[in-house]
Design a protein that fits this description.
The protein is an alpha/beta fold. The chain contains 17 helices and 17 strands.
Length: about 500
């Protein structure tokens, strides 16, 4: 690997740096640590990986589980501790063993829709990291039915939860994340994209035996961040088995991925460009970078020097203490006595919520209620020091996404436009690389409040790219109503409204 390839990967981690040096590990901090520790493992262009030919790599996988264990009733949650009154939907949680020999088990939380659940599709949500919890982040801070209150003990309803329009599974993956575990310690040294995708596929086979009423139901996979790998890869496994066997155990219809990490080098370029476009970087600094960096593997020392004001050692001195997940959002301040408070006010958003969630899931009452292993020390994100990069299409996910579009899946990508972790600028470069003909050009879309919710464009094969205006990396956290409108449109396969209802 050249010096510059290592530098690119480390610089990606710089863009993902956490605003609080002493904060609990979060998605941004985890990605920074992960990329720094694994930078020298990134494969060179041209190296093979299992996603080059998904059918050959995964088509042999089973289409049903031989010895299903567990039961729906055993996983039923009577009530979550601290939940508000009049909860009108069913909740389930528990473990699904995906490897009997090793004792590897994944933890899930499932919420049915309160409105005619039997007619609603099934959706699997995956958070990224790799190493972050879909339970703590996706379910409790983004799109789930509840939010954890500042006391860390009680819950409030999220009026714009995605289970309003779908039945949603939140899966903690891979083993070692959240409540998921393995009885074989060496499993933690063998994690990677391929293991994660296959385990998630096996999870689905077992889960459908536990919930047989969902067999044949329209199924979608959604996620964000490093789920820009997880979601297309799991979809590729499912499609590969379908093509190889002619059987369709999950009835997968499409994928919906927000602020995805798709291409390391494009993320490097897009992140720098985003900082300049939003007035964080000076014209002179950007001109120096543009002159000396081609954003490819051939860049040298002059490029390194040009971007050095934004490297790991200088980033917060140069840019300031801002949240790279949303450069306009308040940050969480941690006082010397350990208390936390927001630096400012943003309606509906609390940057300290990760602390509330951590306290909640480390309560024994909560762990008992959700059927988790008691006395587990739970965290939003878990550092994964051993990750097999050779299992990943590390340079770009574009070929995998293109393959899914060619095989008839509904593929929508969306970007909150205030995120510098996986910025909209980077995603647009990957969309361009798909080289798909535009069928419905870029135009605004509207939320029910008659405000522009964002912008959207559709391409051949139904591939769709959308922005969500005023949102950061975790779109449902920053813009819950707009995210629900876009998600509902995706499920219906129809673009969101093109005009305001208030227009004459």
């Amino acid at each position: 690997m050249t010096r510059n390839q290592i530098s690119y990967c480390i610089f990606l981690a710089i863009l993902l740096a956490a605003p609080l040096p002493n904060a609990a590990l979060d998605q941004a901090a985890l990605l920074r640590l992960f990329m720094e520790s694994q930078a020298r493992s990134v494969p060179l262009p041209g190296e093979t990986h299992p996603w080059v030919d998904p059918v050959s790599s995964f088509g042999h996988l089973p289409t049903h589980c031989k010895n299903p264990r567990g039961s729906k009733e055993a996983d039923r949650i009577t009530a979550l501790p601290g939940q508000p009154p009049r909860v009108n939907f069913e909740q389930y949680a528990g473990y699904v063993t995906v490897d009997e020999e090793h004792g590897r088990a994944l933890f899930y939380y499932f919420v049915e829709s309160p409105y005619d659940a039997a007619s609603k599709p099934l959706v699997l949500w995956l958070n990224g990291g790799p190493g972050c919890s879909s339970l703590g982040i996706g379910a409790m801070t983004e799109l789930g039915p509840f939010r954890v209150n500042p006391d860390g003990k009680t819950l409030s309803r999220n009026r714009h939860a995605w289970n309003n329009v779908a039945n949603v599974i939140f899966l903690e993956s891979p083993a070692g994340v959240g409540f998921s575990y393995s009885n074989t310690s060496s499993d933690y040294d063998k994690r990677g994209d391929e293991r994660t995708a296959v385990d998630s596929y096996v999870f689905l086979l077992h889960w459908l035996e536990r919930f047989p009423e969902y067999k044949g139901r329209d199924f979608y996979i959604a996620g964000e961040s490093y789920a820009g790998h997880y979601v297309p890869e799991l979809a590729a496994v499912i499609v590969a088995v379908r093509k190889h066997t002619g059987k369709d155990p999950t009835n997968l219809k499409g994928i919906f991925v927000g602020n995805p990490l798709l291409d390391f080098l494009k993320n490097f370029k897009g992140g720098l460009e985003f900082l300049w476009n939003h007035g964080v970087m000076s014209d002179e600094a950007w001109a120096n970078i543009a002159e000396h960096c081609s954003f490819g593997p051939s860049d040298g020392v002059l490029c390194d020097e040009a971007e050095s004001p934004f490297n790991h050692f200088n980033f917060f001195t140069t840019v300031g203490n801002i949240d790279t997940f949303n450069i306009y959002a308040p940050i969480c301040i941690q006082a010397p006595n350990g208390t936390t408070y927001p630096s400012g006010y943003l309606p509906g958003y609390d940057p300290c919520t990760k602390y509330y969630v951590t306290n909640y899931f480390n309560s024994l009452d909560v762990q008992e209620a959700i059927h988790a292993r008691i006395n587990t020390t739970w965290s939003n994100c878990t550092k994964l020091p051993h990750w097999n990069f050779n299992e990943a299409p590390i340079l770009t996910m574009v070929p995998t996404i293109s393959w899914l579009v060619d095989n008839g899946l509904r593929v929508w990508l969306y970007s909150g436009d205030m995120d510098d972790v996986c910025p909209i600028t980077a995603t647009r470069y990957s969309v361009q690389d798909l080289n798909l003909t535009i069928t419905k050009p870029w135009r605004p879309w509207y939320a029910p409040a008659n405000e522009v919710g964002g912008y959207i464009q559709q391409h051949e094969g139904g591939f769709t790219f959308a922005s969500v205006r005023g949102a950061g990396h975790m779109v449902p956290s920053f813009q819950p109503k707009r995210s629900l409108v876009l998600f509902h449109s995706f499920l219906k396969g129809v673009l969101p409204p093109a005009v305001s209802l208030l227009q004459p």
